[in-house]
Amino acid sequence: MGYDVYGNGERLSINIFWMSHFRSLMERLGMLDLEATTPDGWEPPEAWWGLPKEHPNYRRQCRLEDQSCLGPLIPLYKLSSNDFWLVSPAEITTALEALGRFPEAQVRFAMTWVVHGQEELFRTHATPTSLLTFQDLWGEWIAFLYATAPVGFRVG
Q1: Neighbours of 111 (CB within 10 A)
Q2: Are the beta carbons of 34 and 76 closer than 8 angstroms?
Q3: How large is the average pLDDT for residues 52-66?
Q4: I want to staple 31 with a disulfide (CB 3.0 to 4.6 A). Which of 9, 59, 95, 147 is the partner?
């Protein structure tokens, strides 16, 4: 179980364990909107999967025209479920700008905190917590964000 994020011809699969690390680090670096809530009238994807793309409910749930759930930063809820959320170019750009305010050494320090701080939470998890693995995966995640910044991406 995990997340498939895709946009601009790019695709990245992230398991739940590592996405929790990404969210924690992004939160520490000011890359996420922690206050945003899911839009009114939102339904889980099971309610609209399989509908023709012309169906109004499909279009509403996919947020094809509705910009109301797009914020200045990536809302935390969009990276907390694989419910086909649209992450907009503006949200990605603002998150990358927040990241850019931190020197690399400070980002690495925050990574260390996330990895060791979450060990207690995931002690029984099968995936080993490795700072080097996290650094590699974080690099892939940030490269994905830069690649999709012009058009946005979906979380599925």
Answers
A1: 19
A2: yes
A3: 52
A4: 95
Q: Quick one: 87 exposed, middle or buried, by C-beta within 10 A (0-12, 13-18, 19+)?
A: buried
Q: Decide: 7 and 148 in contact? Cβ < 8 Å.
A: yes
What's the pLDDT at 3? 82
**How does residue 126 score in pLDDT terms, banded at 50, 70 and 90?**
very low
DSSP 25-73: HHHHTT-EESS--PPTT---GGGTTTS-TTSHHHHHHHTSS--TT--SS
Average pLDDT over residues 21-34: 94
Among 13-22, 42-51, 70-79, whose mean pLDDT is lowest? 42-51
User: What are the structure tokens assigned to 121, written together?
Assistant: 């939470």
At 9, list the tokens.
Answer: 């011809």
